[in-house]
Amino acid sequence: MDNNNNAVLLQISDQGVATLTLNRPEVHNAFDDSIIAALIEALESTDRNPEVRVLVLRSNGRNFSAGADLGWMKRMAQNSHQENLEDAGQLARLMEVLNNHSKPTIGLVQGAAYGGAVGLAACCDIVIATEQSSFCLSEVKIGLIPAVISPYVVRALGERLSRRYFLTAEPFSARVAAEAGLVHQVVPHADLLDEACSRFIAQLRRNSPQAMHAAKELIFAVSQKTIDQSVIDDTACRIADIRVSAEGQEGLSAFLDKRTPNWIED
Q1: Could you read off the pLDDT of 117-175 as tens digits, one per residue?
Q2: Which residues, in sequence order, are CB contacts of 194 under 8 Å at separation 6+?
Q3: Angle at 63 between CA 126 and CA 106, to 5 degrees
Q4: Tens of pLDDT along 19-55?
Q5: What are phi and psi of 146, to 5 degrees?
Q6: DSSP for 134-189?
Q7: Where does residue 121 rank: exposed (0-12), middle (13-18), buried (19+ CB within 10 A)?
Q8: pLDDT at position 2
């Protein structure tokens, strides 16, 4: 797949790894409305594709992404409130599609991740960054707010750190991001991102695709919910459903028979 004059690239390996790449290194992978549309299209197509087992989101160049493109922001400033509402809705759709992607998602962050790029990271299931990576919610510096990314970033950073970094717009390191939970692994330099990513992919490909999808849905179903009878009943229903599913039956049979389940391709 090739979108927006090579600004968004999608490759799918024989092992079912879809790699979605921002490819505008000359502008630090800043994105605009056309790139957002291309990302949504790629995410939706990989979500539907049964051959895709894992999605990797990355970028080319020194920095992961500078967030919104300056030219795009200038155009939006001249548009009506309704046009801005529709435009913001597309960015919100991108975050929603990435966050709810049915396959495991891995984000690789080198260099800087600013503004909306922090939202992209927060929507990935697993994020690997380098010791040189930096994150910044810079919107208030130019009179804006990190609005549509906020539900995902606040969940990833927590309310206390969000109250600091939303208001100060100061950069914070990959180590701080890891301590907060936004980043899951920090590697010494960008050359090691692929190696770390490969280890996660190998681990994920040994797991039931159906169960991983159900596990993601389970997290969303119970996160920050009061543990009342409806939640308890829902979780009981979910485990009953997956026990009688095709992959649930195969996984249990393989475990009891001490054999490899059929979703593992050695």
Answers
A1: 999 999 999 999 999 999 999 999 999 999 999 999 999 999 999 999 999 999 999 99
A2: 108
A3: 15
A4: 999 999 999 999 999 999 999 999 999 999 999 999 9
A5: -80, 65
A6: EEE--GGGGT---TTTHHHHHHHH-HHHHHHHHHH---EEHHHHHHHTS-SEEESS
A7: buried
A8: 42
3-state secondary structure of 104: coil
3 state DSSP class of 261? coil
CB 171 within 8 A of CB 136: yes
Torsion angle in degrees (nearest 10) through CA of 216, 221, 227, 231: -110
Q: What is the three-class DSSP state of 263?
A: coil
Q: How crowded is residue 75: how many other Cβ atoms within 10 Å of its Cβ?
A: 14
